[in-house]
Design a protein that fits this description.
single chain, 10 helices, disordered N terminus, Pdz3 Domain
Length: 395
C-alpha cells in the first residue's frame, strides 16, 4: 500500500509546537523577526527563510552557504536547508492555511481525515471528519473509494464489508473540526469500568473545553481505567497535551515537569521547562493509562506519552509512532508562515529517545472491519485484553 498525504492538513498539525501558548503567541526568540519590514517578493521571502535557518534553526551550524538565486521557489530552498535525515518537519505554508486551522478550527474539503491508496488504484478510508460533506453523505471508515484519481465531487464508494457500490456527489465545504469523539464506557469481565475516546489532534480554538467535557463524563462514570486513542493524532499544541496529561494523572503529575525544551547554542539561554497544570476539577488521578498509537501518532502525542512516563504507568498499543521529539515556533512573514525546528524536547528524566518512534507495549494492527470506538476493533480489543489479564495477547 502507498500512503496518501492529505495535502497540507497532516503537515501543519504534525509539526506545530507553540511552547505552551496559543497558536498565535509570538516567541521572545523571534521577536526581532516580527519587526523586520517585509520584502514580499519571492527573493525577499527566500532571504528571510535563509536568515531564519542560519539563526534560530536547531542545526543552524549545519546550514550550507548557498546562492539564493539558484533556487526558483521557497520550497526548493527549504529542501536544501533542512538537515537530513533528522529534519523531516520544518515547513513553509500559505498564511491562509494557518488561519483556517489554528484560529478558526475549520478546514475546507470533503472531510477525509486519513486514507491509503491501495495497489489496485482504489483508496481505503481510515477516518472521516464528523460534520464534513462525505460524512453527511454516509461515507465511513472501511469504505473504499473506487475512483480516487478522478473524483471532482463524484465518488464511487464500495461500502465496508459488502459488495454494495453507491454513487455520491458532494462539493467541498468549510466545516468545523471535532477532535474529541467516540466517547464510550466499556465494562470488562472483571467488572472494571474502562473509559475510551478518540482524539484527532491537539489543535482547535475550543479544544480544551472539548477535553474538559469528555473528562467530566469520565469522572461521573467513575472509570477505573482509560484508553486514549491517538492513532491518527499528528500533534499540535503542547499546552493542550500537558492539560490532557494532568486530567489523566491528576495529583500524580500536577505541578511536575512535562517537558524540557532546549535550543541551539546561540539561544541556549532560552532553555526552559514546562509543567503539568495543577488542581484540575475533572482530573481522574489514574496511576496508569493506555494510549493507542500508530505511525500517524506524532509530536504532541508522543510528548504526552513520554512526559507521563516518569510519573505513571503508560501502556501503548498498536504500532510504532512517527518519531518527532522536536519543536518549532510559527513565524508569519508576508503571505507565508515559516516553521523551522528550533528545540528538542526532553521529559522530566531527561529522556528524548524516540527519534525512530515509540515502540508499543503491545503490538496490534489497525482493524478496518470495525468502526473507531467498537470494543471489537483490533487495537481497542488489545487494550481491553491487557486491562483484563495484565499482559499482551501474544504473551
Amino acid at each position: 500500500m502507498k500512503r496518501m498525504n492529505m495535502i497540507f492538513i497532516f503537515i501543519i498539525l504534525l509539526i506545530l509546537n507553540a511552547c505552551g501558548g496559543s497558536g498565535t503567541k509570538e516567541s521572545k526568540l523571534y521577536f526581532d523577526y516580527q519587526k523586520i519590514k517585509p520584502v514580499c517578493s519571492t527573493e525577499g521571502k527566500k532571504r528571510f527563510v535563509y536568515e531564519l535557518f542560519n539563526d534560530a534553526y536547531y542545526w543552524a551550524d549545519s546550514v550550507p552557504d548557498i546562492n539564493l538565486s539558484s533556487y526558483e521557489t521557497i520550497y526548493q530552498l527549504l529542501d536544501v536547508l533542512k538537515k537530513k535525515p533528522e529534519d523531516r518537519f520544518s515547513f513553509v505554508i500559505p498564511q491562509s492555511y494557518y488561519g483556517d486551522i489554528f484560529v478558526d478550527g475549520e478546514i475546507t474539503g470533503y472531510g477525509i481525515k486519513k486514507s491509503n491508496s491501495l495497489d489496485n488504484g482504489t483508496m481505503m478510508i481510515y477516518a472521516i471528519y464528523k460534520d464534513s460533506p462525505l460524512y453527511y453523505a454516509g461515507v465511513r471508515r472501511g469504505d473504499v473509494i473506487l475512483n480516487p484519481t478522478n473524483m471532482e465531487g463524484n465518488f464511487r464508494v464500495l461500502k465496508r464489508g459488502t459488495q454494495d457500490v453507491v454513487d455520491i456527489h458532494v462539493t467541498p465545504q468549510k466545516f468545523k473540526i471535532k477532535n474529541v469523539i467516540n466517547h464510550h464506557i466499556f465494562t470488562n469481565q472483571n467488572g472494571k469500568k474502562v473509559g475510551y475516546f478518540t482524539l484527532y489532534s491537539f489543535v482547535g480554538p475550543n479544544l480544551k473545553e472539548e477535553i474538559d467535557s469528555e473528562f467530566a463524563k469520565l469522572k461521573r462514570a467513575d472509570v477505573d481505567e482509560l484508553i486514549v486513542d491517538l492513532r491518527y493524532n499528528p500533534g499540535g499544541l503542547l499546552k493542550i497535551a500537558s492539560y490532557l496529561g494532568s486530567l489523566i494523572g491528576g495529583d500524580r503529575v500536577g505541578g511536575k515537569v512535562f517537558i524540557q525544551q532546549k535550543y541551539n547554542r546561540k539561544y541556549s539561554k532560552y532553555n526552559e521547562s514546562f509543567y503539568f497544570p495543577k488542581n484540575l476539577k475533572n482530573a481522574l488521578n489514574l496511576d496508569r493509562v493506555f494510549f493507542i498509537i500508530t505511525e500517524d501518532s506524532a509530536s504532541a502525542s508522543e510528548a504526552l506519552i513520554d512526559g507521563l512516563k516518569p510519573f505513571i504507568d503508560v501502556i501503548t498499543v498498536g504500532s510504532k509512532s512517527y518519531g518527532k521529539q522536536f519543536g518549532m515556533h510559527l513565524v508569519q512573514y508576508c503571505d507565508i508562515v515559516v516553521a523551522a525546528i528550533d528545540t528538542k524536547n526532553f521529559n522530566a528524566n531527561g529522556d528524548s529517545n524516540y527519534t525512530n518512534g515509540i515502540t508499543p507495549t503491545c503490538k496490534a494492527s489497525d482493524d478496518l472491519a470495525h468502526l473507531l470506538g467498537d470494543k471489537d476493533e483490533g487495537l481497542i480489543k488489545e487494550a481491553l485484553y491487557y486491562i483484563t489479564f495484565d499482559k499482551c495477547s501474544d504473551q
